[in-house]
Amino acid sequence: MIPVGTLPVVGEVAEAPDELGRMLHCGDVASIEVEPQALVIRLADGLSWSGTGAQVRDALSAALQHPRRWRPADVVTEDDVLRAALRDVLDGSVGDYIRSHGGEVTIVSAHDRRAEVRMAGTCSHCPAAGSTLHSRLESELRARFPDLVDLRATEEPGKAARRTWLTLRRRSA
């Protein structure tokens, strides 16, 4: 795991600093992908972590000291980072918790530091949905995307976002 905001990249990496970048370009590292709280490195076919892992670890440690020198394969916007963070939360333990209770939460939109999700299944009529949204989803999302301004939830396609207990706003400082 890497601390949130360490790298200004989400998704596939085209260029990394120093030795890690050399390993990527010469093919020892097949790919590098940055997730909201993780960095996934895949080695080239025929290489093993037992044989190459220490070299990759040292190269990664050095490369993380130069976050501005990392370059994404594609242009990444703040909206992309928010959407990736929200997807990460919903694919992880928060989504598991919601699904274990018969609920479903899907991403409607993520832009301008605002996210909207659709609650379905048992979530759509559950009196604890607001609590789940606030105590679990919002807190995990904020840990991955601290600049979150607004998180809204709707219950049915086509309905306007509720501005009731399901709407969460950034806390005042």
- Spell the H/E element sequence: EHEEHEHHEEHEE
Q: Which class of secondary structure composition applies to the elements? A: alpha+beta
Taking the alpha carbons of the first and last residues, their distance comes to 28 Å
Unreliable stretches covering 5 or more consecutive residues: 158-170
Assign a percent range to the helix content. 25-40%
Strand order of the main beta sheet, please? 3-2-1-4
Strand content: 25-35%
Radius of gyration: 19 Å
Assembly annotation: single chain
Q: What is the strand tally?
A: 8
| Main β-sheet description | 4 strands, antiparallel
Mean pLDDT over the full residue set: 84
Query: How many DSSP helices?
Result: 5
* Net shape: elongated
General description of the model:
The chain has 173 residues and is of the alpha+beta class. The chain contains five helices and eight strands, in the order βαββαβααββαββ. Strand 6, helix 5 (129-144) and strand 7 form a beta-alpha-beta unit. The chain is elongated. Residues 158-170 have low confidence and may be disordered.
Summarize the structure.
By secondary structure, this protein is an alpha+beta fold. The protein has helices spanning 18-26, 49-63, 78-91, 93-100, 129-144; strands spanning 11-15, 29-35, 38-43, 71-72, 103-111, 114-121, 150-154, 168-169.
